[in-house]
Description:
2 domains, Rossmann fold, single chain
Amino acid sequence: xxxxRADGKRPVIAWVGWMFFWHGVIEEGFKPRSVPLExxxxxxxxxxxxxxxxxxxxxxxLDRSLPPPLIGLESFPCPTCFYCVDSHIxxxxxxxxxxxxxxxxxxxxxxxxxLGRLGTEQIFWLPxxxxxxxxxxxxxxxxxxxxxxxxxxxxxxxxxxxxxFLAEVxxxxxxxxxxxxxxxxxxxxxxLVLNIAERGDxxxxxxxxxxxxxxxxxxxxxxxxxxxxxxxxxxxTYPPGDADALAALVAKLLPDATRRERVAxxxxxxxxxxHSHVARGRDFGRWLLAxxxxxxxxxxxxxxxxxxxxxxxPLYLHWAEVLSGTPLALRYxxxxxxxxx
Length: 341
């Protein structure tokens, strides 16, 4: 079954935020329209219609790790959905999610936090995926230039735990190389790619490394990691923050090119088959098709005053205080004072 409106046309999704899994949703019959969103902006329903170019059949906000970008959610006339990625950073996300009709959550172990006005049927696990995994098999051993490679931000102000852990690993494994740049070009140059999850999240680096055909060593973070990928078959895992255990694992793997190549190939195939943006979009689109969207909207609209008072007003007042003296703070203050019709 594919999505169709009563007039036979594709339902329009106002796509606010990141462009994850866009093409997979199209395959399920939806028509996504990009709605630009810049830091420091808030969007009302009228703003979305104007930027979308037409009345949407659904509004989808894909997490940009910004203060609440959508204002007046409780009164939107169409179904709404929040794809939450950074719940390991923003503790206020579960409250914001209660103003939507549906919520997809990237970090599975955080899903209970989103229960409230939303029930289990309105919350969906949507783990990280990769845009266009490499089609070719993993690079041969002869192409590997580095033993152990980490690619990512190492700013000590924003990533202090990561910086400390990398220093510990470097003491034990002098062959560790830390770089910034295009992961697609860099990951295949390493015999082993290192992932770090400073806040215990199942991050996108997992699928990105495997999707380039790299042999990945990643922390055991939970959030469904071992349901998506089997340790020892698709990737290798180490206890989070345990530099000694990581060093012992790397020392065991580096001399065994055959094992590394076998696991890299299996991990790559797994991402190509199940964890591309297209595959994830198909999962998401099918979940949407199974939802009683009209009923969900009617329930939200009937409860819009309590949703505003219990969930949105406290968030608006919080951000008005945090951003005091800015135009954005004034918009939040006005939104807090507004009463849903």
